[in-house]
């Protein structure tokens, strides 16, 4: 097993149903071929022994424990780590305690903020969405990247969708979002000309943390939105609890409509 871990981040955040939410990132230079699989593991000490608490996770960068699972009592001292398997080997993150970033009181406060927002979303204006995180790490696309400069040569590449990485997106990650009542309109310039965009804002919980370029899918209507900006609206000691997301509706010709369908990125396959 390699000594160095490929993980640049492994975060444990409050879960809205009484457990925890886990998210992770891999160094951009890590080049093992796909597929990559992940498992969250738990142990009584930083040295183990370790047991899996999640199923095998494929093509995702976040996992939320079901309600009531992975709870930590007042006298419990538990550690968590992440296992990653690739065709070349097995890797582990460093071990972490669940309250490493927040004390227990602040952790429970953050969880209550998240719980109240989700309750409001479910009762009032919430929309169930699938979120796909745009790749910033993973194997380089063998089809469209310039081998010398590393620049994407085809922004419509059928394999990486212009991200330069394969898979192009990680997901789906299920989230409830509260959309703004009205959409703003703006003119957008693209390679294909000028078009009018409908711009929405939505409030979501803080895990996973979203960024520009991520794709949001309205599950009920199958509409696709591309995130333009994200701002944290509520946090506890620098841990995001709620985030405000601004995004525009993607045109039907956009690659976003190929995400989450047979042969799309969540199957780990692209067109050759």
Walk me through the structure.
Helices cover 7% and strands 40% of the residues. The chain is mainly β and 272 residues long. The strands form 3 sheets. A 6-stranded antiparallel β-barrel has the order 9-10-12-15-14-13. The longest helix has 20 residues, at 104-123. It is flat and about 55 Å long. Mean pLDDT is 81; it is low at 68-75 and 265-272.
Key descriptive features of the protein:
272 residues, mainly beta, Immunoglobulin-like, 2 domains, five-stranded antiparallel β-sheet, 7% helix, flat, disordered C terminus
CA distance, first residue to last residue: 32 Å
Q: Major beta sheet, specifics? A: 6 strands, antiparallel, barrel
**Backbone shape:** flat
In N-to-C order, the SSE pattern is EEEEEEEEHEEEEEEE
What's the alpha carbon Rg, rounded to whole Å?
19 Å
Strand order of the largest sheet: 9-10-12-15-14-13
Low-confidence stretches: 68-75, 265-272
Overall residue-averaged pLDDT value: 81
Number of helices: 1
Question: Which strand-content bin applies to the residues?
Answer: 35-45%
> Structural class, from secondary structure content?
mainly beta
Number of strands: 15
How many separate structural domains?
A: 2
Task: Give the helix proportion (percent range).
Answer: under 10%
How would the blueprint of this fold be written?
Blueprint (H helix, E strand, L loop, with lengths): L6 E8 L5 E7 L10 E7 L7 E2 L4 E2 L3 E3 L14 E8 L2 E4 L11 H20 L2 E9 L34 E11 L4 E7 L2 E13 L9 E4 L4 E14 L2 E11 L23
Antiparallel strand pairs: 1-2, 2-6, 3-4, 3-5, 3-7, 7-8, 9-10, 9-13, 10-12, 11-12, 12-15, 13-14, 14-15
């Amino acid at each position: 097993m390699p000594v160095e871990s490929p993980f640049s981040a492994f975060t444990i955040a409050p879960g809205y149903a009484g457990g925890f939410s886990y998210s992770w990132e891999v160094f951009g230079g890590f080049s093992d071929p796909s597929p990559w699989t992940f498992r969250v593991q738990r142990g009584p000490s930083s040295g183990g022994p370790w047991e899996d608490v999640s199923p095998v996770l494929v093509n995702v960068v976040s996992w939320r424990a079901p309600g009531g699972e992975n709870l930590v009592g007042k006298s419990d001292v538990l550690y968590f780590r992440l296992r990653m398997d690739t065709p070349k080997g097995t890797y582990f993150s460093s071990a972490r305690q669940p309250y490493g970033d927040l004390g227990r009181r602040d952790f429970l406060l953050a969880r209550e903020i998240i719980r109240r927002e989700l309750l409001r979303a479910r009762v009032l204006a919430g929309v169930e969405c699938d979120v796909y995180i745009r790749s910033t790490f993973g194997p380089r696309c063998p089809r469209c990247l310039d081998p010398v400069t590393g620049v994407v040569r085809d922004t419509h590449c059928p394999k990486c969708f212009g991200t330069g990485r394969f898979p192009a997106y990680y997901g789906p990650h299920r989230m409830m979002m509260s959309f703004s009542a009205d959409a703003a309109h703006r003119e957008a310039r693209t390679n294909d000309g000028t078009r009018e965009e409908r711009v929405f804002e939505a409030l979501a919980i803080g895990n996973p943390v979203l960024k520009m370029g991520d794709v949001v899918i309205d599950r009920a209507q199958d509409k696709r939105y591309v995130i333009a900006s994200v701002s944290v609206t509520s946090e506890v000691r620098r841990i995001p609890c709620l985030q405000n997301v601004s995004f525009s509706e993607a045109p039907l010709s956009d690659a976003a409509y190929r995400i989450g369908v047979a042969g799309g990125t969540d199957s780990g396959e692209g067109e050759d």
